[in-house]
Design a protein that fits this description.
Shape: extended
Largest sheet: 3 strands, antiparallel
Number of strands: 5
Distance between the termini: 55 Å
Strand order of the largest sheet: 1-2-5
Mean pLDDT: 85
Length: about 130
């Protein structure tokens, strides 16, 4: 599998390795599962995958935004957005792997991991009203 992003091809290859289906059948299985998830979400249903998380669609209302370059107010139309909530099992597993990585680096468990330095920006001028 690739190092930074898991693709459909990676998932199909994992199914091929683990389950033993042919490569074509593995790819078809992955496409079918993803298609079912997409179909359910487009119909407004919530998709819950045990020990992984849940996907749902949320309706966002209209609001007023601001063009950062000109300061002009712009209406943002209502839209639907996809929301993913990880299960506690997944969160715990991710945190355990982070603890193992810290132990491998010699960082004590519970110690803060140093953050990347944040660039300093000049102060913004206040927006003119009117």
């Amino acid at each position: 599998m690739s190092e930074t992003t898991v693709t459909r091809a990676d998932l199909a290859e994992a199914v091929y390795q683990e389950v033993g289906l042919s490569r074509n059948d593995s790819a078809t299985l992955v496409e079918t599962v993803l298609g079912e998830i997409v179909d359910a979400l487009t119909q407004g249903q919530t998709v819950k995958i045990s020990s992984f998380g849940s996907f749902s669609v949320r309706q966002k209302g209209q609001r007023v935004g601001r063009n950062p370059k000109t300061g002009e107010e712009v209406p943002i139309l209502p839209r639907r957005v996809l929301v993913f909530r990880a299960s506690h099992v997944l969160k715990n597993r991710i945190n355990r792997s982070m603890t193992k990585a810290q132990a491998a680096l010699g960082t004590p468990a519970g110690a803060a991991v140093p953050a990347a330095p944040t660039p300093t920006l000049p102060p913004k001028a206040p927006l003119a009203k009117g």
